[in-house]
Design brief:
Elements (H helix, E strand, L loop, with lengths): L3 E4 L4 H10 L9 E4 L13 E4 L2 H6 L1 H4 L8 E5 L2 H4 L2 E2 L1 E3 L2 E3 L8 E3 L4 H8 L7 E2 L3 H8 L7 H8 L8 H14 L3 H9 L8 H10 L3 H15 L10 H8 L3 H14 L8 H16 L3
Parallel strand pairs: 1-4, 1-6, 2-3, 3-4
Antiparallel strand pairs: 5-9, 7-8
Length: 286
């Protein structure tokens, strides 16, 4: 267990209070705070040291990694992305999360088990991992947002009549994997709503992009294999393979779920067959 801990979701005051309440330290005055720009003294009577930024930790790294500080615990505050570049820093209130929209990390509440790991910590030298931040950043790159421009345009349509049914049709079309000719027919099937050629042309432009194609590929793969080999939700892994934001895919799935309360969102195969049949049946009645 490392003797240096990363803190990304709590303030120094919150950490001091939690350490006292958990009994790891007797009182707040039993901890040292390394002031910004200061250097660690070669000796200190306090075994718990709060380091307020990553730069101060790096500046004092030779002391932190020295034999003299093997019995000390250091808590360094900073961004989880930058803390993740440091080997030997144990996350206290964050964790790697590939499906998160913050470059691969999720922030967590401060749990008793995490605090308990501080008391059990043993010496582990800290070092910077070269190129780690850039490789993580590149790994989060997606092939462009589809939901952003799509919803921006949908919100220009009349809210009381157009937005909800059009949004459902677009989600159905992406999920079904049909072509742009089918999209036009599905939009025409909407009752009591006039979808002008200009509106259809704009949707065709938005949905003929590489991003839209990738979304259709994600839905096709997810319908085929919604679970991984160990029974976990396969969506994050599929989205990563296709360079698509899992948040946007989940939003579109929620649109489909709201449109059909009798079908649970997890029953994707049933939902898919229902979606592909409904537009055709509507158009036959008009």
């Amino acid at each position: 267990m490392p003797h240096v801990f990363g803190v990304a979701n709590h303030s120094p005051c919150q950490i001091r209070s939690a350490l006292v309440k958990s009994g790891i330290v007797e009182k707040a005055s039993a901890m040292s705070i390394l002031m910004p720009g200061a250097s660690l003294a070669q000796t200190t009577k306090h075994k718990v040291v709060l380091v307020l930024c990553i730069q101060d930790l790096m500046r004092n790294l030779r002391f932190v990694n020295s034999d003299q500080y093997k019995g000390h615990k250091f808590l360094v505050f900073g961004s989880p992305v930058l803390l993740g570049d440091l080997h030997g820093v144990h996350p206290l209130d964050y964790k790697p999360e590939p499906d998160a929209r913050t470059h691969g990390y999720a922030l967590l509440p401060l749990k008793r088990a995490a605090l308990g790991s501080i008391a059990k910590a043993s010496y582990d030298p800290v070092r910077k991992v070269k190129g780690s931040f850039m490789s993580k950043l590149i790994g989060t790159v997606i092939k462009g947002s589809l939901l952003g421009p799509l919803m921006t345009y949908i919100y220009t349509l009349p809210s009381s009549t157009h937005q909800t049914p059009v949004k459902h049709i677009i989600a159905q079309w992406l999920y079904s994997g049909k072509d742009l000719h089918d999209l036009g027919r599905m939009l025409d099937s909407l009752r009591h709503i006039q979808i002008t050629p200009k509106i259809k042309a704009r949707f065709a432009e938005l949905l003929s992009t590489e991003a839209a194609c990738c979304f259709q590929q994600v839905f096709a793969a997810y319908k085929k294999n919604p679970k991984t080999s160990n029974g976990q939700d396969a969506l994050p892994q599929i989205c990563k393979q296709h360079g698509v934001d899992a948040y946007e895919v989940r939003y579109l799935l929620s649109v489909l779920s709201k449109d059909s309360s009798e079908a649970p969102m997890t029953d994707l195969r049933t939902l898919a067959s229902r979606r592909t049949r409904r537009p055709a049946s509507k158009s036959n009645t008009t």
